[in-house]
Design goal:
The protein is of the alpha/beta class. The chain folds into four domains: 202 residues, Tetratricopeptide repeat domain (Serine Threonine Protein Phosphatase 5, Tetratricopeptide repeat, Alpha Horseshoe); 96 residues, Serine Threonine Protein Phosphatase 5, Tetratricopeptide repeat (Alpha Horseshoe); 82 residues, Rossmann fold (3-Layer(aba) Sandwich), CATH 3.40.50; 213 residues, Glycogen Phosphorylase B (Rossmann fold). It is 52% helix and 8% strand. It is built from 29 helices and ten strands. The strands form two sheets. The protein has a six-stranded parallel β-sheet, sandwiched between helices. A four-stranded parallel β-sheet has the order 3-2-1-4, with no helix packed on it. Helix 27 links the parallel strand 8 and strand 9. Helix 9 runs antiparallel to helix 10 and helix 10 runs antiparallel to helix 11. The longest helix is centred in the first third of the chain and has 20 residues. The protein is elongated, with a radius of gyration of 34 Å.
């Protein structure tokens, strides 16, 4: 090799005194490039750069020197110089899979994902067996939201090398990202086969199975992870969370105590503990742990530049209360503003709420001012989240503010719908079958899916003689109507419903005319319950903490009855109970409006009427 280098150097030296024609310069440039190759191969990149640069000074269209310079600059992480030289080589129609692949990597580092994908695609065209090109193409397509192309690239990578951990793991991650959880399981299993001790892929598989409610296997995997690493806090937390999902609350409490023994300030555990205590009826402890939601979600309870209310005297002060979570949460907990106002008329309450609820909440006399989110908020002395009021007020089961109704509909809309529905003498039932499917996070969307049911499940209710079925469903779930085989029995409202006068304004007016609302756990049932409308709620297994555990009634809403799944996904059983109960009510000649909304009063509570007692006694009899 040394003899060849000496010979090349001597040739270049002698040639420099010889012919100066363009062809001669090309030959000399080639020799400089070959000499550069030698220094590059022995790790002397600076000398190699000097020789390649000299070659290009003699012949600027030397693709070999351009590519080699691009490779060196790429290795030195100088992507700007690397891209410049690779692109010059490409302009010379130079085709080299290694060059295209490296250029794709450079574009990737510059977040130029479209260009990166094009280069990986070109690499594959030149060399279909280039495993890494398929892998990185998958990443680029995913960044471009071209998920089908990304999946195909990663599937090809796994075919090229069935033992590639990266191909299987990346494919599993992609399937999970696009919420194809069933498809993610097999790639994760394959990845785990390649690296049995890789705790990350074990956790990915366990979490995916968890989301698919394959709880027993996910518990086994969490235990395997903990056997390999007893300090894997997230695995221990997920183990407890899975037990909670399975309604094994006492066991979940034990596991959470183990987590807190290792890490006392682990916010996700504290927040998850809140739902357990609340479901078990230990409200005081539950509200205390519920305050950990801020740390668990990496948020601040201080939304505005004023002090957070901690229970100070509010006489002659203005309290800003802001809605924090979903529409149903706001409708349920808005009762606390009425309770605050009842304690002292000298408090001024300003509510910042979700825009859809603003028209309805502006009608409530105990709220002095309502502003929608992103609107200007007036000067206030204190602020607090609506969902923190139960904690500050130390709410227990026996002190829940249950002065129903605490929401008053618009009297004109009530009168309008009373006139509209006056000719219907049937037992009028309003139904809602699906919650909000447009939440931003996968976890929330799956939670909504679990507590929603198909419209078709209401067919047996629609077939009860003497009933009229009114749809209270909005937006999500409306696509099911076309395939519903009892749609001719379903009464709909036109496109102006809850639009012209604001969200829930018509719904509230209609509910006042109904004999019963049957709904899944969503904003509709909270609105009906807050107005004292007889409401039956279909709950999944396990139900949300607010409905407590194993109860058929609700301390939050006296007019509500709960129909629960006894096992995950089984809506048939609670629906059969509902059909039997409605049938017995109608056969028993019950009044079509068993609970009338009482008039507004200044008292904090009211006693049920004789008719209300009869109503609930008959309901209980039908459930026994």
């Amino acid at each position: 090799m040394k003899i060849r280098i000496i010979a090349l150097s001597l040739f270049i030296f002698c040639a420099s005194f010889a012919d100066t024609s363009p062809d001669h310069h090309v030959s000399i440039a080639e020799e400089y490039a070959h000499l550069g190759d030698h220094f590059d191969s022995i790790g002397k990149q600076e000398k190699a750069i000097e020789l390649y640069t000299k070659a290009l000074s003699l012949h600027k269209d030397n693709p070999h020197a351009l590519v080699k310079l691009g490779n060196i600059y790429y290795a030195q992480q100088d992507t700007t110089q690397a891209v410049q030289h690779y692109e010059q080589a490409m302009q010379l129609q130079h085709e080299d899979p290694h060059m295209h692949f490296n250029l794709g990597l450079c574009y990737q580092q510059q977040n130029a994902w479209q260009r990166a994908a094009e280069q990986f695609k070109r690499t594959i065209a030149l060399d279909p067996t280039h495993l890494n090109a398929h892998l990185y193409a998958g990443s680029a397509y995913e960044k471009l939201q071209q998920h089908d192309a990304a999946i195909e690239a990663l599937k090809k990578a796994s075919e090229l090398d069935p033992h590639s951990f990266e191909a299987w793991h990346q494919l599993g991650n992609l399937y999970r990202h696009v919420e194809r959880l069933e498809d993610a399981v097999m790639p994760y299993r394959k990845a785990a086969e390649q690296q049995p001790n890789n705790l990350h892929v074990m956790m990915d598989l366990a979490n995916t199975l968890n989301m698919l409610n394959q709880n027993e296997e996910s518990l086994e995997l969490y235990q395997q992870i903990l056997a390999k690493n007893p300090n894997a806090i997230s695995a221990l937390y997920n183990f407890g969370f899975t037990l909670k999902k399975m309604d094994k609350l006492e066991r979940a409490l034990d596991v959470y105590e183990q987590v807190l023994a290792k890490k006392p300030d682990y916010a996700p555990v504290h927040f998850s503990l809140a739902s357990i205590y609340l479901a078990l009826g230990n409200l005081e402890k539950g509200w205390e742990e519920y305050e950990w939601r801020w740390k668990a979600h990496h948020e601040s309870e201080k939304k505005f530049n004023i002090p957070v209310w901690q229970g100070e005297d509010l006489a002659d002060r203005t309290l800003l209360v802001y809605a924090e979570q979903g529409l149903g949460d706001t409708l349920q907990f808005i009762r606390y503003l009425k309770a605050l106002k009842a304690k002292s008329s000298h408090i001024r309450i300003v509510l910042e709420t979700q825009s859809p609820l603003a028209p309805l909440l502006k009608l409530q006399p105990y709220i002095d001012q309502v502003v929608s989110r992103r609107e200007h908020v007036p000067h206030c002395h204190y602020q607090i989240s609506l969902m923190s009021l139960p904690y500050i007020l130390k709410t227990r089961l026996d002190t829940i503010p249950a002065d129903i109704p605490y929401l008053t509909p618009d009297k004109d809309r009530v009168a309008f719908w009373k006139e509209k529905l006056s000719q219907d003498t049937n037992f009028k039932i309003g139904i809602c079958w699906q919650g909000n499917a447009r939440y931003s996070t996968q976890a929330l969307r799956r939670a909504v899916a679990a507590k929603s049911l198909p419209l078709q499940a209401f067919k047996s209710v629609a077939e009860i003689p003497g009933v009229s079925i009114y749809s209270l469903q909005q937006v999500d779930g409306m696509d099911q109507i076309a395939s519903c085989d009892f749609k001719d029995k379903l009464i709909f409202f036109d496109e102006t419903f809850d639009k012209t006068y604001g969200s829930f304004m018509d719904s509230a007016g209609v509910m006042q005319q109904l004999d019963l609302v049957v709904s899944v756990d969503t904003g509709v049932c909270h609105l009906a319950g807050a107005m004292g409308v007889p409401t039956w709620i279909l709950l999944p297994f396990p139900a949300d903490w607010r409905w407590l555990r194993n109860r058929t009634d609700s301390p939050w809403y006296p007019s509500v009855r709960l129909f629960r799944q006894q096992q995950l996904g089984d809506w048939d059983t609670p629906m059969q109970d509902i059909v039997a109960s409605i049938t017995n009510m109608i056969k028993g000649g019950m009044p079509t409006r068993a609970i009338q909304t009482p008039p507004q009063s200044n008292t904090q509570s009211h006693q049920p009427t004789k008719e209300q007692k009869q109503f609930f006694e008959q309901i209980i009899q039908t459930l026994e």
